[in-house]
């Protein structure tokens, strides 16, 4: 990605959320009315064209499960955020609760989740993507108590320094969303980021992270290898995969206890969604929720 252009991945995910929110079945899980408004202007008309019943279902099938996966991923992370807010509601630092969205892209949670009414939100991302988000978000209402943008080129700027400069409080509990990011980082960068998050996190802070398992390639056979290479062409190459056990050890070494670890597709029955593709073709991404001891 050029330094002066927004992330292609961020735009794709926002597009998927916009389409899911208008799909009769996927909207049971993904309700993101702000996603369409955050898209570049030339993509917004395409959402309307692609939202018809026939076109919408066709796109779901052609995405090889990615549309369903992103809709369910959104729902599970939203649910984890709501759990984190409820867990801290009424506590000593309830009015100081913070949400940090790492690699925020075109995330709209600060604009649509009522659970964030008392929460200060920090969106951390590359300046180029953040510039698009800030410009587009002006038309959206704010559901969070406050939203602070933290421009951060992770290859040149340290996360802790950027957050502290933006007013992050290390003594207050935090909710961290690390969605769709770890797979593009070298393992050393993932480990360093976890250590920095741990240092910044007060007791009982919640870390919600998504990650790819090694069978992202091997489990999908030839299709999986093509998909992995395709991601590298349109965004960035995949650099990091791990197993649930290995991630648990990594997080545990930094004082985080695993609360849950699941693939989004496992939640499909809960939302009465019939996944369009067999599980072997679904993206091999999981969501881990852990808490700072």
- Overall body shape: globular
Largest sheet: 7 strands, mixed
Instruction: Specify the helix fraction band.
Output: 40-55%
Q: State the secondary-structure class.
A: alpha/beta
- Kindly report how far apart the N and C termini lie: 37 Å
Strand line-up across the major sheet: 3-2-1-4-5-7-6
Total helices: the number is 12
SSE sequence, one letter per element: HHHHHEHEHEHEHEHHHEE
Overall mean pLDDT: 89
- What Rg do the Cα atoms give? 18 Å
| Number of distinct beta strands | 7
The portion of residues forming beta strands comes to 15-25%
The unreliable regions are 219-224
Short description:
The chain has 293 residues and is an alpha/beta fold.
Commentary on this structure:
By secondary structure, this protein is of the alpha/beta class. Helix content is 42%, strand content 15%. The protein is built from twelve helices and seven strands. The chain has helices at residues 8-22, 34-38, 44-50, 53-62, 66-88, 109-112, 127-137, 159-165, 187-200, 215-218, 221-234, 244-252; strands spanning 98-102, 120-125, 146-151, 174-178, 206-212, 256-262, 285-292. A seven-stranded mixed β-sheet has the order 3-2-1-4-5-7-6, sandwiched between helices. Residues 219-224 have low confidence and may be disordered.
């Amino acid at each position: 990605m050029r330094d002066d252009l927004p992330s292609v991945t961020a735009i794709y995910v926002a597009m998927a959320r916009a389409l899911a929110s208008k799909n009769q079945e996927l909207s049971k899980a993904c309700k993101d009315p702000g996603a369409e408004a955050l898209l570049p202007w030339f993509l917004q008309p395409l959402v309307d064209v692609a939202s018809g019943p026939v076109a919408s279902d066709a796109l779901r099938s052609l995405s090889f499960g990615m549309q369903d996966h992103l809709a369910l991923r959104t729902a599970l992370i939203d649910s984890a955020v709501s759990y984190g807010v409820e867990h801290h509601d009424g506590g000593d630092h309830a009015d100081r609760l913070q949400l940090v969205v790492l690699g925020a892209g075109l995330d709209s949670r600060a604009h649509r989740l009522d659970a964030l009414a008392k929460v200060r939100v920090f969106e951390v991302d590359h300046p180029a993507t953040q510039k698009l988000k800030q410009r587009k978000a002006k038309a959206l209402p704010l559901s969070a108590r406050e939203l602070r943008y933290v421009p951060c080129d992770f290859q040149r700027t340290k996360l802790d320094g950027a957050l502290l400069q933006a007013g992050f409080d290390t003594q207050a509990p935090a909710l961290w969303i690390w969605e769709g990011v770890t797979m593009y980082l070298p393992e050393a960068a993932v480990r360093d980021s976890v250590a920095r998050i741990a240092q910044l996190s007060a007791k009982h802070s919640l870390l919600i992270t998504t990650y790819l398992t090694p069978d992202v390639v091997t489990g999908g056979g030839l299709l999986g290898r093509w998909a992995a290479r395709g991601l590298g062409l349109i965004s960035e190459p995949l650099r990091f995969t791990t197993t649930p056990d290995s991630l648990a050890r990594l997080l545990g070494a930094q004082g985080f206890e695993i609360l849950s670890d699941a693939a989004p597709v496992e939640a499909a029955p809960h939302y009465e969604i019939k996944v369009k593709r067999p599980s072997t073709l679904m993206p091999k991404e999981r969501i881990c929720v852990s808490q700072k001891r």
